[in-house]
Specification:
The protein has about 200 residues and is mostly helical. The chain has three helices and no strands. It has a domain at about 95-203: Pectate Lyase C-like, CATH 2.160.20.80. The chain has helices spanning about 5-20, 40-45, 45-55. Helix 1 (about 5-20) runs parallel beside helix 3 (about 45-55).
């Protein structure tokens, strides 16, 4: 997706938003392909500057509460998803393709990531408190120092994932695949590891 296409999507969203429709009707970006989109480049583009002046008159892209179900973020770069609270973002990313997406240092606590494909994604230092990651694919993902307190990771595929220093206190890992995962320094107090596969896992 090119910057120009993305601006058109944003414009459409904000036009609907300004009509003050029901929240469920104005918060959907379903089936959009954001693959290889550089949001840093978007925000510096002439098109976005014009969009800011004419439509929203604000300094950043605000995606709070938007539904990205089944959307594709493969290799998205510099994904800057912020709200009025610094680095705080709630997303519905159910079934979304997020392969190699960078979410480093973001707070997406409580977000819905059921069945999302986060293979090789960068989730370093990300707050995933109480997130729904059941049946998610997190193979070889970087979850170093991530906060997964109370997260639902039941039947998630974490094969080869780096969970070094991660906080998994009270997390639901029922039937999760942790084969080959790095759990060095991870806090597993109160975590449910029933039927979890820890073969070749490093604890």
């Amino acid at each position: 997706m090119q910057a120009e296409e993305f601006i058109l999507i944003l414009t459409s969203f904000y036009e609907i938003r300004l009509k003050e429709m029901h929240p469920e009707e104005r918060m959907r970006f379903v089936n959009q392909d954001f693959s290889q989109l550089d949001l840093d480049k978007v925000q510096k583009s002439d098109e976005y500057q014009k969009f800011q002046q004419e439509v929203i008159n604000q300094s950043r892209i605000d995606f709070v509460g938007l539904d990205f179900s089944k959307s594709n973020f493969t290799k998205t770069r510099h994904i800057i998803l912020e709200s009025s609270q610094k680095n705080k973002l709630f997303l519905n990313l159910t079934n979304a393709t997020l392969i190699e997406t960078n979410f480093e240092d973001l707070d997406i606590s409580g977000s819905l990531l059921t069945k999302a494909n986060l293979a090789r994604a960068n989730l370093k230092n990300v707050s995933l408190i109480a997130c729904f990651l059941d049946l998610a694919i997190l193979m070889n993902a970087n979850l170093t120092n991530a906060d997964l307190t109370g997260a639902n990771l039941s039947r998630a595929n974490l094969g080869g994932a780096n969970l070094g220093g991660a906080n998994l206190t009270g997390a639901n890992l029922l039937g999760a695949d942790l084969s080959g995962a790095n759990l060095n320094g991870a806090d597993l107090i109160g975590a449910d590891l029933t039927k979890a596969n820890l073969e070749r896992g490093r604890i």
